[in-house]
Amino acid sequence: xxRFNILLFLTLTITTISLVTSQVxxxxxxxxxxxxxxxxxxxxxxxSYRFITSxxxxxxxxxxxxxxxxxxxxxxxxxxRVGLRRDESLMRWIWDAxxxxxxxxxxxxxxxxxGNLKLAESNGRVKWQTNTANKGVTGFKxxxxxxxxxxxxxDKFVWQSFDHPTDTLLTGQSLKVNGANKLVSRKSDMDGSDxxxxxxxxxxxxxxxxNKTGTPLVYGGWPDHDFRGTVTxxxxxxxxxLTEPSAYELLLEPxxxxxxxxxxxxxxxxxxxxxxxxxxxxxxxxGTISYLRLGSDGSLKAFSYYDPATYLTWEESFSFFxxxxxxxxxxxxxxxxxxxxxxxxxxxxxxxxGLIGWSDTCAAPKTTTFCSGGKGxxxxxxxxxxxxxxxxxxxxxxxxxxxxxxCKAKCDRDCKCxxxxxxxxxKKCLIAPLLGTLIKDANTSSVAYIKY
Length: 452
Known about the structure:
The chain is mainly beta and 452 residues long. It is built from three helices and 36 strands.
């Protein structure tokens, strides 16, 4: 055996022995059972919750706390909450471990000698785990920033919840192209499983998608912004060298620049290209405890926590679809599944007989109407002048130049096409498999043709 091979063998042997001997000591192991009384206060999603306690571990790091909660009977999620008891209904759930695999009564959360944190049903069936068995884990803790970590004897993180976001980013938490690169919304307040909206980081930018038809459609974000592979939600004091109170900025920060280029650019345009940090908003208090959430309705909002307040301690500190950022009508769900929106108000429901009063019952045509009849099925359209599709600004109003007849023929042939939007000035065609909120724009040459 060569000298190199001997050294390699010894190194691997020492590493293996080190991992085996680096185990969780008995005084740090725990096993808690999901049973007993519920907490006395109402929380977000109108959820019931149970506290987790163990003499060997703390599940609280002010103002973060790990608990079980449920919105439907016998379907519990292990989750991190932010907020104190006196906040009552303002406590927020900002991370779920098992959102797609809820557990029942008497389920257990355990952290044993092998260093694996796992959630199992009462019959022992594992529903969620960190997969850190025999990887050198020696301890569990919740950090002051809300990051749940499993660490080794040198306090190095072996696993952290910041690497497994659900629909929320906490201050200092990142999305990475080569790692956890997206947020996924809940289906609804009552159903915490994966919903149709996502916020995805790739090499092109940070893009919001809706997928209700099997095809992801872009509806927001910064699809042409270079984040250099990482984007971090951050809150920074405007002037770090001041002792007097100052404003705090809510930012989306890219990976650090390469040495030699330290320029910092604040860009408030939600659509377009550019380099540097995105400035979401500015608040006049210390908003260090903040989070950015992709809502079940597709909204992207930040909320900031002001601890000294005795009432309304949470404030909506940023909203992508708002009067000050991107128009509210741009949110696909703003007027439900199908509504006519003007200046932030849902004003009508388009029908083959014209516009009628808007209500929650406004419904777009269903693709099954056009897919079930086979070839040769007659297709009719009703026309709406001066209206844009929610994807228009992000796909340059469609493809073209082409004629309106060719655009119609393309939609005719596609049974999943619910309508098409034709830009008369630029002769561009946008095929729509999903309609959502229609945006009124009197100054546009965009005309919608909706199947019926």
